Amino acid sequence: MFVIIASFVTAFTLTYFTIPSIINIAKEKHLFDEPGERSSHTEKTPSLGGIAIFAGAIFSIVLWTPFQEFGNLQYILCSFIIIFLIGAKDDISPISPSKKIIGQILAASILVFKSDIELTGLYGFLGIEEELGRITYILLSLFTILVIINAFNLIDGINGLAGSIGALIAGVLGSWFYMVGQIELAVVAFTITGSVLAFLRYNFTPARIFMGDTGSLLVGIVSSILIIKFIDSNYHLPDDNMYKFKAVPAVAVGIMILPLFDTMRVFITRLIRGYSPFKPDRRHIHHLLIDYGMTHMQATAALVLVNVIFITLVFSSHELVEMHMLLIFILLLASVLTLWLTLALRKVRQKNNL
What we know:
Elements: H1 2-28, E1 32-33, E2 45-46, H2 49-64, H3 73-92, H4 97-114, H5 134-155, H6 161-179, H7 183-203, H8 212-235, H9 248-255, H10 257-272, H11 285-292, H12 296-317, H13 323-353
Antiparallel strand pairs: 1-2
Helix pairs in contact: 1-2, 1-7, 2-3, 2-7, 2-8, 3-4, 3-8, 4-5, 5-8, 5-10, 6-7, 6-8, 6-12, 7-8, 9-12, 9-13, 11-13
């Protein structure tokens, strides 16, 4: 327990005291995020908070991780550095989406091929139990990592949201890893939790700094590592282990519901409207809440609460409901809530136009 607390406190402290210096440097060098038509903010704000998150997390992981139990840590750190360089470059001088995705694929490939961050089966999903071949699982693992990385990048649209959801997910998974004795992964989880919570002190309204791509991509890749290891480690636990989940793919979706569902919903609606799924717009759930009349903090609190409810739901029902039924229920409930919000917003707009 000491190493967990120490990693959290170290990451929190370093990030907390680093951010004011980054804010001052960004102001001196005029490194601001300029408000645009899709922006939910109106003030020019530094977007280099991810640098402090990265510094706090890396320092704490290197200092406190038990290397004798985590031989693949060097490769994970390499993937973090790649993601950091991509994000920092994009925050300072935007790069093309194709270059960003190439860098993400490189980082994901290091995780899969060198760090064994890999899904090794479908874990009963669709009733498939037999081996499908390693190539299939490699591709599935790469796809999962890329989806989660970009899902966090996409929800980073209002103050506090990406950081709060990232801290929630990392904290939940870190607690589980601690309970099952995987201290090395618990250290990684609570390190990023500490760094992000320190950042949130400066990101809550009125935001003094944004995490930028540097932060959102880092939180995304850490979350992808934790969720993949959660699924695979859980599957290989003895059946009599009290911390084993029976419907682990559905539980994983429940934990990650907000970034995953919002990304899936936005991509589908863009395709239905005849647009590229990668074309930016203001159709994310957090944009809908802002347009409905909520403040940034109200929208963030509401979405974090929803994610907590889904986590509680899957934790309490995984033994009672068959995996596919639980997964269908999760997605159906998320769809109904989003539809209700969309219809409510439409009524507000019609009322304002009268």
